[in-house]
Amino acid sequence: KDAKAPSLLFGLNDQQQAAVNSTSPVTAVIAGPGTGKTKTLIARIAHLIQEEKVPASRITAVTFTNKAAQEMRQRLDVHFQGRRAAKNVTIGTFHSVCLELLGDVNILGDADALTLAHQVLQECGLKLSARKFLSLVSQRKNGVCTEHSPLTDSAYEAYEEKLAQYQVLDYDDILLCALALLRQGKETRTSFTHLLVDEFQDTNPLQFQLINAFSQQSKSLFVIGDPDQSIYGFRGAGAQCFERLAQERPDLETIYLSENYRSTPQILSCALPVIANNHEGVSPHLTAQRPAGAKVSFVRAGDEFQEALFIAKEINRMVGGIDMLDSQSLAGGKREFSRPMAFCDIAVLYRTHRQAQLLEKCLSIEGIPYVLTGREDFLCEPLIRGSVGFFRFLMNSGDLLSLYACLTEVMGLSQKQAEEVTDKFKKTGSFPQQTPPPAGMEKFLSLYEKFSQKANREKPQKLLEAWAQDTGLAEDPSLEKLINISVFYKELAPFLRALALGGEGDVHRSAARRYFSDAVSLATLHGAKGLEFPVVFLCGVKRGVLPFQLPDRESDLSEERRLFYVGMTRAQEELILLSPGTPSLFLDELPAQELSFEQAREWKEPSSGKQLSLF
Ligand code: ATP
Ligand code: MG
């Protein structure tokens, strides 16, 4: 036997080992947070390669975020001690795995989708917001039925025609096309025998069909998940996929794990009673393996600004970078910490993207490096669409929608002029020779030539910085943010792909134009799924935000509770819940004796003073 074999299962408990070794064609691992599901999945990949001698290229693992995919890849590399034995394993989100299957296609990003939606709505005279329209289209493509949908057939078809005209696929089409390809049984670019799916509880019906289609051609299907962490119900996903799998695959073997290795008993005793309310008061079976730690804190703050400031001051106190007295007098923090922390040990989580703004501001003021993961709305701004469009067209001259966006949004061509140029280019592959050329066209051509030469040679950050100079957009704050995203990428193509899928997944943005290896993580509860941090600040645990309340829709209380549960169970050692305003009704579900209460120090706006002047 391989000399490395013992290390593979080393430290795994019996149930985890059973999951790694399962020889059943379909295996499901159902277990709560922090029970080592993901760890087990990774060990199983290593086991397949090392023991079962499955070629790495025959293995595909699907996870829900790019960040999770990255981490999985890293952990495998560590396991194989950098020997890259797992290099050819395909690891990614449903979208990235399907894209790989499809080969070269044009993706309709979030921003472009909104533009097309606007056009369609205008043409059809439909009174809907573009976002609402797109979400109805998506529901339809995903086979989610909504009664009395205001989406008309003609508007839907008009949208589809536009996609065909520009030869682009929207996010759902990526999955639908991959499904069609698999069902035809055609030879695909990647064919694999082993499929592993993390966070299975969040697969929607379309993704379920994909898994099914994949598993028709494969030898082994391995899914892991936790019904209590299903948080994509609004997209038609749900824990019923476990039941459906059991029905469709009678050969299913199910394994349960119940030991929690992530969180202190204190954190679990707060999280479990909350989720019990989804099960008529019965908690899931989960026993803490970690030693006792600090009590969970509940901090009340006057408003969101004071909440954000408290967090920033506390982080500095934990990392030990600031005068203790000063921070105490400002923020009021008096909790004791078990050990000094690094910035990267700390996460700040929130329910909605909007909440990040004040946090970013306060962290910057306190000089705290951070990375933010999430959907970036600024990518929809015209100048950014046009700038990104320029580079997308540069890399792929079939992407006419991007050419059009660049000409209209950055180069200042009228819609009609831009259409003429794109039409000509589509038909002949060259740009029209007009005399005199429309203003802006000359500029475009010279930039096109200049950047064509260096697109493949220089890093995205360098390219964007040059672009900002050449177009006179250097002062634009959105372009600055775009540059802060680019620092995570070495090459243009993966950067552009991440941006294109950004509306669907998670783009990473640095606080500045540099990459910090030690930084606080900012993420939404959805974006934090599957991750863990020694310290978690969970903000905005207040009425209207968590559970989230839209004015026109009843919130799904059980799903919001699962989100809160996901958030709390990210913490390993310290969990700080914050409420700026009327506390959330979920706080009533916490056992009061397990909490330590605190009030964030009132921050009275001084008329002068160095802190305020920074604003
Ligand atoms: P989630 O539902 O949040 O995704 P999970 O079940 O996937 O959680 P993991 O992230 O795999 O849990 O593991 C949680 C933590 O517990 C990790 O730090 C992991 O290394 C640790 N862990 C898992 N199993 C063991 C074990 N048998 N012994 C020691 N530590 C373990
Ligand atoms: Mg996991």
Automatic annotation (TrEMBL):
GO terms for biological process: recombinational repair. Signal peptide: none annotated. One of its GO terms (molecular function) is DNA binding. It comes from Youxingia wuxianensis. Residues 265-530 form the UvrD-like helicase C-terminal domain. Belongs to the helicase family. UvrD subfamily. The keyword tRNA processing does not apply. It is an enzyme of class 5 (isomerase). Its EC number is 5.6.2.4. ATP binds at A31, G32, P33, G34, T35, G36, K37, T38. It catalyses: ATP + H2O = ADP + phosphate + H(+); Couples ATP hydrolysis with the unwinding of duplex DNA by translocating in the 3'-5' direction. Residues 10-264 form the UvrD-like helicase ATP-binding domain. This is DNA 3'-5' helicase. Keywords: ATP-binding, DNA-binding, Helicase, Hydrolase, Isomerase, Nucleotide-binding.
